[in-house]
Specification:
The complex is a heterodimer. Chain A is of the alpha+beta class. Chain A has three domains: 109 residues, Butyryl-Coa Dehydrogenase, subunit A, domain 1; 112 residues, Butyryl-CoA Dehydrogenase, subunit A, domain 2, CATH 2.40.110.10; 140 residues, Up-down Bundle (Butyryl-CoA Dehydrogenase, subunit A, domain 3). Chain A has eleven helices and ten strands. A four-stranded mixed β-sheet of chain A has the order 1-4-5-8. In chain A, helix 1 packs parallel to helix 4, helix 4 runs antiparallel to helix 5 and helix 4 crosses helix 7. Chain A starts with 6 loop residues before the first helix and ends with a helix. In chain B, a hairpin with a 2-residue loop joins strand 9 and strand 10. Helices cover 27% and strands 29% of the residues of chain B. Classes of the chains: A alpha+beta, B alpha/beta. The interface between A and B is medium-sized, with 20 and 15 residues.
C-alpha cells in the first residue's frame, strides 16, 4: 500500500485548485443565480487540458491517470460543480468511450478534437421514460442501408447546447431488447436535431441541460460504435467510469462545504467563544471529516483499480453512492453550522447543498448504485 | 538570446512558521514548498517575452540552488513552460553563497537576461540579486515592475516615490523584479505537466564558497493583543494607553 501521491498528481491537484479559486470563485454566485453557462471558464479549462486529461497523448490528450482526475475533479467541484460536470462528461463518458471502443476513423475525426478541448461532447442515454431502467429506450435508429435514421427524445442532457459531438444510445432492433441497442456518434449540427429549453434546475444551474429531439436524423453507418448490438454494453461500461467522476464531484462538494464550515466555526463566536469550541459543533465537524475521508478513499480505490486494469465497476458504484449521500449530509450540516448565514448565497454552502442533491440522482441514482452493489454480493 | 530565471524553493506563504533547535532552524515538517512568488512572476514574464520574440529568444532556463527536495518546485517551473532547468546541488547557506553558485552558472552559459525576484518569501534577504549582478558584472536594476526588449536593448519601468521611471540599458542585463512584472503566475496545463517529465533538469555540483553569515536565532512576533475600544470622545484614555501601555507614542 502507498497513500502518497506522485509529484505529478500533486501538481495537477494544485493546478485544478488554482484554476478553481482564481477563475471560478469570483463570479460563481452570479452564474448560479442567473443560470449563466460558464463559456469563458470552460474555454480556459479546455486550454489547460482538463477536458481531455485522461485521453492517451497519441489522441492529443493529457495522458494522466484516473487518480489525477479524481484529485482535479474534487478541487474544481469544491468551487463549482457546473464546471466539474462538463469536465466529467467529456473525460469519463465521451472521450473514454471513444478511446476504448471507437475505431481509428472515429478516434481521428472525433476523439482528437475532443481531447484537445476544441470540441465538447455529450452523452445521450436518459429518456423521458427511460432513466434508471436504461433498457427501455424508445429512441430508434432504423437501418436504411447507407445510414441509420434516428428518431426520439433524450432527456436531462448535460452539455446539450455547448457540445458539438453527441454519443447517442438508440434501439436498432427493439425485439432483441437490450441486445438490439446501439451507440452512435452524431454531429450536433445534423439536420433534424432540436433542443428543448434550458432546464431551470435546483442546483448546478449553470450547466447546460436540455432535452434533445431527433426527427429523421441521418447518421452515417460508420458512426456506429462497436459491433451491432453493442450499445447497451457500451453505455453500462462507460457509466462504470462515469461514476468515478461524479463520485469525485460529490466528494468535492462535501470537502468544499466542510472547509467553509470549519473556517466559519473558528471565526464565529457564540456564548463567549468560537463555535468550534462547543462540542456539538466540533462533533459535527468530526463526523463530516470522517465521512469525507471515507469518501475520498473510495474514489481513489476505484480510480486505482481502473488505472491498474482491474474490475472497478462495483467499487465505482460504492464510491458514487457513498460520496453522493455523504455530500448531501455534509453540505446540509455545513448550512446548519453557518446558521442564518448558511441560508444566504454569499456563504456558498446553500449552493453546495443544492448541488449535492443532483449527485444522488444523475448518472445512476443512489438506489441504482445499491442495486449494482447488492447484485454483486450474490455472485 | 537566452534568459535565465533564478528560482527559490520557499514555504507556501500561508504556512504557519515554526522553529526548532532552540530557535535556530526552521522546522520544515509538514511545509508545502512553492516557487518563490516573485520568481514565479519573473518566470511568467520571461515566457511572455520568449513567446512574443518571434524566435529571437531561444530559451528560458530556470536555476535553483537546492537539494533534491526542491525538484518538485523546479518541475513545476518546467510544467509552466521553462525549457530546461539547472539545480545546483547544495543546501542554500546564505545570500552570498547562493549568488556565488548562480554566478558560476551564468558565467558558464552566458545568458543575455537574468531575472531574479526582489526577495524570497522565506528569509526576505533581498540580497542575492544585487550580489549576483556584481559577481557576473552585468548591468542591473532593482525594483523592476515592467520589462521589455526594444531594438536589442532592455527597457524597464520601475516605481519611484510618487511615480514611475523608464530606463534603457544594454544587454547583458540582470533585473531584480517585483510586483507588476507580470499579471499573475501561470497555471500549468496538462500538456505542460506531461512534458515536464522529459525536459532537461541538469544537476551540477556546487562550487566551494566561503559562508559569510550565519543565522544565530529566530524570534517569532508577539501574538496580537486583544482589541480595546473607546468612545470617540475618550481621547485622553486612548493617548494614555498608547503612551504607557503600547509605548507607541
Amino acid at each position: 500500500m502507498n497513500f502518497e501521491f506522485t509529484e505529478e498528481q500533486k501538481m495537477i491537484q494544485q493546478a485544478a485548485k488554482d484554476f478553481a479559486e482564481r477563475e471560478l470563485l469570483p463570479d460563481v454566485i452570479e452564474r448560479d443565480t442567473k443560470a449563466l453557462f460558464p463559456k469563458e471558464h470552460v474555454k480556459k479549462l479546455a486550454e489547460l487540458g482538463f477536458l481531455g486529461m485522461m485521453t492517451d497523448p497519441k489522441y492529443d490528450g493529457g495522458g494522466m491517470d484516473t487518480i489525477s482526475y479524481v484529485l482535479a475533479m474534487e478541487e474544481i467541484s469544491k468551487i463549482e460543480s457546473s464546471v466539474a460536470v462538463i469536465m466529467s462528461v467529456c473525460n469519463s463518458l465521451v472521450n473514454w468511450g471513444l478511446e476504448t471502443y471507437g475505431n481509428d476513423m472515429q478516434k481521428e475525426k472525433y476523439l482528437k478534437p475532443l481531447a484537445r478541448g476544441e470540441k465538447i461532447g455529450a452523452f445521450l442515454l436518459s429518456e423521458p421514460e427511460a432513466g434508471s431502467d436504461a433498457t427501455k429506450q424508445r429512441t430508434t435508429a432504423v437501418d436504411m442501408g447507407d445510414y441509420y435514421l434516428l428518431n426520439g427524445t433524450k432527456n436531462w442532457i448535460t452539455n446539450a447546447n455547448c457540445a458539438s459531438v453527441y454519443l447517442v444510445i438508440a434501439h436498432t432492433n427493439p425485439e432483441k431488447a437490450h441486445k438490439g441497442i446501439n451507440a452512435f456518434i452524431v454531429d450536433k449540427d445534423t439536420t433534424g436535431i432540436t433542443l428543448g429549453p434550458h432546464e431551470d434546475k435546483m442546483g448546478m444551474r449553470s450547466s447546460d441541460t436540455h432535452s434533445v429531439m431527433f426527427t429523421d436524423v441521418k447518421v452515417p453507418k460508420e458512426n456506429r460504435i462497436g459491433d451491432d448490438g453493442f450499445g447497451f454494453s457500451f453505455a453500462m461500461k462507460t457509466l462504470d467510469g462515469g461514476r468515478i467522476g461524479i463520485a469525485s464531484q460529490a466528494l468535492g462538494i462535501a470537502s468544499g462545504a466542510f472547509e467553509r464550515a470549519l473556517q466559519y466555526s473558528k471565526e464565529r463566536k457564540a456564548f463567549g467563544t468560537e463555535i468550534f469550541n462547543h462540542q456539538v459543533i466540533a462533533f459535527k465537524l468530526a463526523d463530516m471529516a470522517v465521512k469525507i475521508e471515507n469518501a475520498r478513499n473510495l474514489c481513489l480505490k476505484a480510480a486505482w483499480l481502473k488505472d491498474n486494469k482491474q474490475p472497478y465497476g462495483i467499487m465505482s458504484a460504492m464510491a458514487k453512492q457513498y460520496c453522493a449521500d455523504i455530500a448531501m449530509e455534509v453540505a446540509t450540516e455545513a448550512v446548519q453550522i453557518h446558521g442564518g448565514y448558511g441560508y444566504v448565497k454569499e456563504y456558498h454552502v446553500e449552493r453546495l447543498m443544492r448541488e449535492a442533491k443532483l449527485t444522488q440522482i444523475y448518472e445512476g441514482t443512489s438506489e441504482v448504485q445499491k442495486i449494482v452493489i447488492s447484485r454483486s454480493l450474490l455472485k | 538570446m537566452k534568459i535565465l530565471v533564478c528560482i527559490s524553493d520557499v514555504p507556501d506563504t500561508t504556512t504557519k512558521i515554526k522553529f526548532k533547535d532552540n530557535n535556530t532552524t526552521l522546522d520544515v515538517n509538514g511545509i508545502q514548498w512553492i516557487i518563490n512568488p516573485w520568481d514565479e512572476l519573473a518566470l511568467t514574464r520571461a515566457l511572455e517575452l520568449k513567446e512574443a520574440s518571434g524566435g529571437i529568444i531561444q530559451s528560458v532556463t530556470v536555476a535553483n540552488v537546492g537539494t533534491v527536495a526542491s525538484e518538485p518546485t523546479i518541475r513545476k517551473a518546467l510544467a509552466v513552460g521553462a525549457d530546461n532547468a539547472i539545480r545546483i546541488d547544495a543546501q542554500p547557506k546564505d545570500a552570498y553563497y547562493v549568488a556565488a553558485q548562480l554566478a558560476n552558472i551564468v558565467k558558464a552559459e552566458s545568458y543575455d537576461i537574468v531575472l531574479v525576484g526582489r526577495d524570497s518569501a522565506d528569509y526576505n534577504g533581498s540580497a542575492v540579486g544585487g550580489m549576483l549582478a556584481e559577481l557576473i558584472d552585468y548591468n542591473s536594476l532593482s525594483s523592476v515592475s515592467s520589462l521589455n526588449i526594444e531594438n536589442g536593448k532592455i527597457r524597464i519601468n520601475r516605481e519611484i516615490d510618487g511615480g514611475t521611471e523608464t530606463i534603457e540599458a544594454e544587454l547583458p542585463f540582470l533585473a531584480i523584479v517585483q510586483k507588476g512584472i507580470s499579471k499573475e503566475p501561470r497555471i500549468p496545463a496538462m500538456r505542460g505537466i506531461m512534458m515536464a517529465r522529459t525536459k532537461p533538469l541538469n544537476v551540477v555540483q556546487a562550487v566551494a564558497v566561503e559562508i559569510l553569515t550565519e543565522d544565530v536565532s529566530f524570534e517569532m512576533p508577539q501574538p496580537k493583543g486583544s482589541c480595546k475600544k473607546f468612545d470617540s470622545e475618550n481621547v485622553k484614555t486612548l493617548v494614555s494607553l498608547l503612551h504607557n501601555e503600547a509605548k507607541l507614542i
